[in-house]
What does this fold into?
Amino acid sequence: MAKKVCFLVDSIFSIGGVQRVTAVIAKALSNTYEVTIVTLDAPSAYDTTLYGLDECQINFRFFQYPPVGKWKNLMCKAYSYLYRKVLPQTHFTSDLYAHSSFPSELRNALVAELDRQYDVIIGDHAPLAVRLATCKKQLKGSKLMGWIHNSYDALYGKGSLYIGEELQQHYEYQLSKLHHTIVLCHCDAIKYHIPTDVIYNPLTLKPGQPSDGTSKRFLAIGRFSPLHKGFDILIDAFCLFAQHNSEWHLDIVGEGQEGDRIQRMIDKYKLNNRITIHPFTNNIQAYYSRAQVYILSSRWEGWGLVLVEAMSHGLPVVSSDLPVCQEIMGDFGMYFRNGDVEDLSRRMGVATMINWKEKSAEAMDIAKNFNTDSIIKQWKALIEE
It folds into this structure.
């Protein structure tokens, strides 16, 4: 009988890199295992045409947490504050915080949902992985894994928009309870103080027509969220670049809460005829095929999914010098100092003068290292262990 594998996710029926790679891995595993995705999406979001989820046999379940009583909620928040700001961070206080930040009403509801004789349950993202760890005693029949999609520094570094320094020890201790904690690159694995498994993300789409390298168009893709993708850095850099180059165009494919701010920057620099914003699309390959050079301006990344996609279309890449980007691309990447507008502008200029055909061939060779088959073998090894 095939093993039963469950993914616990914040969302699968929405647009995003994590959703896409989760769908790719789940689809591939469904050829061998009975796969279920438990999602916190609203049932109204159901759309299996997204990411080709209608092309395989996967079970979908929608889960919502119940409300917590007002007074209990206040007491839990009070202890949570004490843990973060006052109490020593020991294993004992961490366990208390794990329960105060995830009250019994929520834990019991999640356990009731997941107690379906799954052989393996995978918590997608650090917070859901920690939720699984908190429920470990009640889910003792299942192998529990956490799949960490963000970089260590983005999660726990100073000024983090996600978890932050004050909860770093708590997260690491709780994650250590899982059977496996999966991170996306070796440069992150060495920063954790607990055992981890490194599994790269695969190329998540079927490449379209390779670029012919003649369009004089830069391309950047990503969600318009605060700071993360560095589109403010990119637009500032393109403004400097455009003062010395009147031919190249910049296409940005993305949507999100910072969209209006990004458009205002373009308006301010009077670059509407040089920078075009496009909405997300299921045919993102068309943009890769039309581009000549890809730019990743992110301040942080857990995994450079778009880098592999761009290289699979033969695109040379200008990238911030994040460790994960250097791990993926090695000497191939044209790196600029993270956050340095002038350095990015200079690299854009360099990218217009490279031996494009030679660089394009190298890009496609590197992309072959991230095929789904080889990466699924690593997932299966953990599941069967």
Summary: The domain at 217-370 is CATH 3.40.50.2000 (Rossmann fold). The longest strand covers residues 4-9.
